[in-house]
Specification:
By secondary structure, this protein is α/β, with parallel strands linked by helices. Among the domains are: 134 residues, Leucine-rich repeat, LRR (right-handed beta-alpha superhelix) (Alpha-Beta Horseshoe); 121 residues, Ribonuclease Inhibitor (Leucine-rich repeat, LRR (right-handed beta-alpha superhelix)), CATH 3.80.10.10; 125 residues, Leucine-rich repeat, LRR (right-handed beta-alpha superhelix) (Alpha-Beta Horseshoe); 143 residues, Toll/interleukin-1 receptor homology (TIR) domain (Rossmann fold), CATH 3.40.50. It is 28% helix and 18% strand. Strand 19, helix 5 and strand 20 form a beta-alpha-beta unit. Helix 7 packs parallel to helix 8, helix 13 packs parallel to helix 19 and helix 17 crosses helix 19. The protein is elongated and about 165 Å long. It starts with a helix and ends with a helix. The structure holds one DNA strand. It is a single-pass type I membrane protein. This is Toll-like receptor 2. Belongs to the Toll-like receptor family.
Length: 780
DNA sequence: CCTGGATGGG
């Protein structure tokens, strides 16, 4: 209440509504408005419904000359100025329903020659005014008038109206009706009358209204009738000049007597279509008196959503034979129908279309319903949402309907499907929503359109050469149905399954495929799949619900992405290539390092470093106490002849003999060669290097040289003695033997001469070099 | 011969 109070004030101070879109539709519904707001002048559709507008002023809508649709329903409009719609000459749609208008004025509509749709229902007027309300509405096609207060209709009320698609009169409280009030009506396609009180209290009045209407309308619909008594036996009869072909009862309560009167009086009125919808029926089908009546005009019967309290007490309706024998279309749905006796089935001898959905039919009752010659013309049968369980039982029964082409068994619980018999004429079969998990044994081989949606089918491999359309949506299929078995399928619906992929190979087996719905599956968005579906499939067939329903399920990086927008990276898409490239990227540095190692003798350097570290770790004293040899001779194998023939003989035969360590002779077998070298050098006082070109080539010699070099620097003892067997120019020594170069620079070396006299001097010098230090140290 | 439905997350 506070809100309303506040906004009434706001509204009076020129409230503006700016909720307009690009098509000049302004939606000002439910804004607590109390007056017509200021709004875009070029507005073409204006919704002002569900506000608190009480009055429409003459000036409110004068500027809105382009207004075509004006919705003012559910306000509190009590009055409208006579000239209020004067400028709205292009207005086509005006809804003034559910307001509080007490009086209607013909002046409002004087200029609305384009108005097609007018709703004046649900106000407080008791009559349609003194003037001729609708006489200028030459374009009117839809009219709803009346309310719970309308008490009388008089002769000129509808003057000017001749053709309407729909005419709805709310006259539940109508008390008086002046004859020929509908005399201007020439062709009203559908006239809906809510005439509760007239039918209840004054059936003559009701009768006069219907009789007046009957020559001008093809479809009469009666609403809100309630358990009519049949005191007036003329009820529902129609005049000879009636145009009525269709009679509808809606939202009414009917009894046995109502139906009996209707059947009795209606059968000769030329009605071809009878509809009862959303009604309550209190009787038990006690219409025996119609037994010998016939009705050749009735060809369509619709009885839908009827609450029948005593449905289980219903009579066998075989006495209806003559009334239903010409019916071609029957919809008997949502009626608690549990049975149609064989006799009634037989009476429907011209029935082509029968809809029995939402009833209580069982396998057993089907047997009773389909007897010899029942429904002998039937081609279309709907048994959706009943209590059928076994295809094994009902398929042979239904195969007796000799012309059946179209059968809908959807939404039953069909568990027993191991064996079926079908009519050869059957072309359309609907088994959706039936909890089926296997079906292959139960599909008619010549079927053309098959709906198996909403089941639990995991595999589909049936051979169906005539099949044109297949709907297997919402099942558990992981693969497309075996393509080769379905050569004529044009339309395939397989959304909501467990498909993980679709490949060109699978799709191309359906040569005739034009339309495919494969959304809502669990696609693995591989590169092949993405390429195929995005670049080829979408261009070759009509893909329904594309792209919004095609979502990637995996891999994780693209989960929940729309297939159309999903792109995979180069590395994802070329796995072999990228693995190869990674391997190359990983192996190349290793190879390069390896190559560099080889080229620059890395391993040798590593070994050296390791050996050096080893040597450094050993305590010095232990070394001195373990002197065992006078000299360790380091030489190349190529120089072994000189070492063994000359050096060994000369030095070991002196007095006292010098003890030499030769790797050939003194190395401990089985020990690692580097350990041997280190140990031997450590056990020797001096290291004698026999230098030659060969020596430089041999790695071990380099190593020995280096180790001795460590000792040289570590212990400051002059252990290395160099003997040159042949001249080695310094340039020929490889770069990495910088130590040898240094050694040769810093130490004097002995050269092996060719001349024998000079050789004697050489030996002498060598012995001095080997022994000299011994004298200084005074050891041993 | 339109009047229909189910749907998952790891």
């Amino acid at each position: 209440m506070l809100g309303r109070g506040c906004c009434r004030l706001w509204g009076e101070s020129n409230y503006t509504c700016q909720r307009c879109d690009s098509s000049n539709f302004c939606n000002c519904s439910s804004m607590n408005l109390v007056t017509i707001p200021r709004v875009l002048e070029k507005v073409s559709r204006l919704n002002l419904s569900y506000n608190f507008i009480t009055h429409i002023k003459e000036t409110d809508l004068t500027k809105h000359i382009k207004l075509k649709v004006l919705m003012l329903q559910s306000n509190e409009i009590q009055s409208i100025d006579d000239q209020a719609f004067k400028s709205n000459v292009v207005l086509e749609y005006l809804d003034l329903s559910n307001n509080s208008l007490i009086q209607l004025s013909p002046a409002w509509f004087l200029h609305l020659s384009k108005l097609q749709h007018l709703d004046l229902s649900g106000n407080k007027y008791r009559n349609l005014g003194p003037g001729r309300l609708f006489s200028h509405l030459e374009s009117l096609r839809w009219l709803k008038v009346g309310n719970a207060f309308l008490s009388n209709l008089k002769k000129d009320d509808f003057e000017g109206i001749s053709h309407l698609d729909d005419f709805i009169l709310l006259g539940n409280k109508l008390e008086s009706y002046e004859d020929r009030s509908f005399s201007s009506f020439q062709n009203v396609s559908h006239a809906t009358m809510n005439l509760h009180d007239p039918f209840q209290k004054n059936q003559t009045l009701a009768q006069r209204i219907i009789w007046d209407l009957a020559p001008a309308t093809t479809h009469v619909e009666l609403r809100d009738l309630e358990y009519l008594s049949s005191s007036d036996t003329q009820l529902f009869s129609l005049p000879n000049n009636s145009s009525v072909k269709k009679y509808t009862f809606r939202n009414s309560s009917l009894s046995d007597s109502t139906i009996y009167v209707l059947l009795k009086n209606g059968r000769n009125s030329g009605i071809s279509e009878l509809v009862a919808e959303n009604c309550a029926f209190s009787g038990r089908g006690e219409w025996h008196k119609v037994k010998n009546m016939t009705c050749e005009s009735l060809i369509s019967l619709t009885i839908r959503h009827i609450s029948i309290k005593q449905f289980y007490l219903f009579f066998d309706l075989s006495f209806l034979h003559g009334l239903i024998s010409h019916v071609r279309t029957a919809r008997l749905t949502n009626l608690n129908l549990f049975m149609m006796p064989c006799g009634v089935s037989k009476s429907f001898q011209r029935l082509e279309y029968l809809d029995l959905r939402e009833n209580l039919l069982t396998d057993l009752m089907m047997k009773e319903m389909v007897c010899e010659n029942s429904w002998s013309s039937l081609t279309y049968l709907i048994l959706r949402k009943n209590k059928l369980h076994s295809l094994k039982k009902i398929s042979p029964i239904l195969s007796n309907i000799t012309h059946l082409m179209h059968l809908d068994l959807s939404q039953n619980t069909l568990s027993d499907v191991d064996f079926c018999v079908w009519s050869k004429t059957l072309q359309f079969l609907n088994l959706s929503g039936s909890q089926l998990s296997t079906i292959s044994q139960c599909i008619p081989p010549n079927i053309e359109v098959l709906d198996l949606s909403n089941n639990n089918i995991r595999t589909f491999t049936t051979h169906l050469p005539s099949l044109r359309e297949l709907n297997v949506s919402n099942n558990k299929l992981m693969y497309l149905p075996g393509g080769g078995y379905l050569p004529n399928v044009k339309i395939l619906m397989i959304s909501g399954n467990n498909l993980i992929s679709m490949s060109s190979d699978e799709i191309t087996t359906f040569d005739k495929l034009t339309t495919l719905d494969a959304g809502k599956n669990h696609y693995i968005c591989s590169c092949e799949f993405l390429t195929y579906i995005n670049k080829y499939l979408t261009h070759s067939i009509q893909l329904l619900n594309w792209p919004e329903n095609y979502i990637c399920d995996s891999p994780l990086v693209v989960k929940r992405m729309i297939v159309k927008n999903t792109k995979r990276s180069f590395f994802d898409c070329h796995t072999t290539l990228s693995v190869t490239l990674s391997c190359v990227a990983l192996c190349l540095p290793i190879a390069i390092v390896g190559l560099l190692c080889y080229k620059y003798h890395g391993i040798w350097y590593i070994q050296m470093t390791w050996a050096w570290l080893q040597a450094k770790r050993k305590p010095k004293k232990v070394r001195n106490n373990n002197i065992f040899y006078d000299a360790f001779v380091s030489y190349s194998e190529m120089d072994s002849e000189w070492v063994e023939n000359f050096l060994l003989r000369e030095l070991e035969n002196t007095h006292p003999p010098l003890i030499l360590c030769l790797h050939k002779r003194d190395f401990i077998p089985g020990k690692w060669i580097i350990d041997n070298i280190i140990e031997s050098i450590e056990k020797s006082r001096k290291t004698l290097f026999v230098l030659s070109q060969h020596f430089v080539q041999s790695e071990w010699c380099k190593y020995e040289l280096d180790y001795s070099h460590f000792r040289l620097f570590d212990e400051n003892n002059d252990t290395a003695i160099l003997v040159l067997l042949e001249p080695i120019p310094k340039e020929t020594i490889p770069q990495r033997f910088c130590k040898l170069r240094k050694l040769m620079n810093t130490k004097t070396y002995l050269e092996w001469p060719e001349d024998e006299v000079e050789q004697q001097i050489f030996w002498f010098n060598l012995k001095v070099a080997l022994k000299g230090e011994e004298n200084i140290r005074g050891h041993q």
